[in-house]
Amino acid sequence: MKVILRQPRREVEVNGVNSVRKLLDRMGIVGESVLVIRGDELLTPDAVLKEEDVVELRPVISGG
Amino acid sequence: MKCRICRQGAVIEVRRHNAAFCRSHFVEHIHRQVERTIHDHGMFSPTDRLLLGVSGGKDSLALWAILTTLGYAVDGVYLHLGIGDYSSESLELTQRFAEGRGLTLRVVDLPEEQGFGVPEAARAGRRSPCSACGLSKRYLLNKAADDLGYDVLVMGHNLDDEAATLFANVLGWQTEYLARQRPVLPATEGGLARKVKPLIRVAERETAAYAILQGIDYEVEECPMAGGNTINRYKKWLDTLEEESPGLKTRFLTGFFERGQASFATMAPPELRSCEVCGQPTTGEVCAFCHLRRVTLEIVAR
Fold it and tell me: Does the residue A16 lie in any domain?
């Protein structure tokens, strides 16, 4: 699936994970520090992911 | 995951409350948290003239939306700090938000009004960019509330901001700062506006989620001058602890407000006088902002 990262904005391809929790584990990201967005919905850690999904991992720390 | 209230599909898990919420119950939950904070700390009443510091980020825009929904009339003030495209983009997002909701936005332009921006101030002084920025923001927000006749200055600091600041103040045993870290700072005779923080019960993750769920377009990127910022580093450490121990940040902060803060608050507050240059409150003869302005303008003129 395509994963959009921010600060700065960039995209990476991640394969072989089928849930948000597994995606965060794979990326080594602390769940508390990001929101996981697919389209206009927010995803909880148990949400199922598919290979064709586009998912944004948006850091919750922003601005200044 | 299911919503704790209606058992429909949840959109967010809030581990520190051992709960998950659907969209509408999460929004209600946030409104309730803010309303409770305003009430418990007697922050303001619907008749007060409120001025909210808005940056174009998630916290201030979410708070503007929340307070408006709760029935408070709040005007916003945006400080243009002269940080290139970042300042212009943030201003545009703030203007679009205010126009879309028919809200009054006031803009203070630091470079236009004072002849320098935060990048110049950071280069000129011996301060970090975040320190020069914080000093300028505190000064300009207080001056705006004073000049424009508002009763209360409302700030968008969230639970994470306050917990990280507390962590920093404790690590350095900054007792003067600990004495002043409160949800409400009363107005002083010397000209400091009443300052309140209604988001102290709401985590950064939750204000971001609120903004996304309410369709609020906010500045997602970090300030280009904030790289390596100490407070952001402390936030990341606290997040790692929170992941292992949900509720830790809340316990740390509310424990301080309920049991720790009083010990520091007994210290006599510094005596304030009027700055000889601008008339704003200060502990010395010339306030820190006027000193920063003088040094920066000297360097800019070279």
Answer: yes
